[in-house]
């Protein structure tokens, strides 16, 4: 029975050994990749992890301000675009009114010309001049 308990504990030790090897490799990689000065900077960053919370709070406030400014700018641009569209609608309406009034007057002129043409034809037919 003692062998059974040893076999159960051995895989746990093996797993812990794997973790130790991985940690050792990570430390070696840091030493090889980073020069001494940056190694101290990394250590300082790890020690000052409480300052990260303050930086993120300031970053969140800054992001909120940027979002608010972007939102206000978007509203202003939208207002300008809507105003421009309304202006174009009124301009188009006035132009259409001008064109329709011209068409009505031209229609009246054409009707008058038709009446005059009919009168001339009647006069010519009555006078006996034929084509």
Overview of this protein structure:
This protein has 131 residues and is mostly helical. Helix content is 94%, strand content 0%. It is rod-shaped and about 130 Å long. The termini are far apart. Residues 1-10 have low confidence and may be disordered.
> Main sheet?
none
Gyration radius from CA atoms, angstroms: 46 Å
The poorly predicted ranges are: 1-10
Count of distinct strands: 0
On the 0 to 100 scale, the average pLDDT is 77
**What is the chain-wise order of helices and strands?**
HHH
Strand content: under 5%
How does the helix and strand content classify structurally? mainly alpha
Shape: rod-shaped
How far the N terminus sits from the C terminus, by CA atoms, comes to: 137 Å
User: What's the tally of helices?
Assistant: 3
Helix content: over 70%
Quick structural summary:
With 131 residues, this protein is mostly helical. Helices cover 94% and strands 0% of the residues.
Give short descriptive properties of this protein:
rod-shaped; 131 residues; 0% strand; mainly alpha
Q: What secondary-structure arrangement, pairings included, does this model have?
A:
Blueprint: H1 2-33, H2 36-47, H3 49-127
